[in-house]
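ok so for the tutorial part 2 we go from a plain amino acid sequence to predicted structure tokens. step 1 is just haveing the sequence, like this:
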Amino acid sequence: MLGVGAWKQRMPRRDDALPGREHAILPREGHHVHGRSLLSEAFPDSESVLFGMGCFWGAEHRFWDFPGVLTTAAGYAGGYTPNPTYREVCTGMTGHAEVVRVVYDPKVVSLPALLRVFWESHDPTQGMRQGNDMGTQYRSAIYTSTVAQLAMAEDSARLYQSELQRAGFDTVTTEIALAGPFYFAEDEHQQYLSVHPHGYCGLEGTGVTCMPAPNRLSA
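step 2 — the prediction. this is what the tokens look like for a chain of 219 residues:
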């Protein structure tokens, strides 16, 4: 028998996932930090990637003022339930990870530079948890918009795995895949640590530096 809460660390089957709803949750306001839209469509010629690093409050904070990042948004990805709510995701029965969508200008910042922030800002070896936050929603994940991005993410994972092994850490458990649907989180979760500067942030890196490889993985 699974221990209390252990079932939340197992992905649900698609047939067991919550049904969700037809209508999407859409942000009512602009970005709390810089006022720009949270919609990726507002930025022609931009690129986007989804990062799961545990609680999305702290994850979004890592990226919203990074040079070249146009906007960020907290949301849900990688699961089955359409248009889930935060409460539903917390049950472990939607299959989603908490993610931050990072929309960036590829002429100003490269994906490898963003990947370095991703790897160094959390512990990607913990499976279905991040620190004291337990459950499938807190898993480490990279969901890419293109096959080219996917290859870069996989390359960076291999490089960082080597660095982590040298430092005595376990195997990287990060889920890396092409992105499916992204669902916005409710307004109260957007830019949470800007609205609540002393709010909870459970992210903590390993202290291991992620050095981009020459050329392909240069920032």
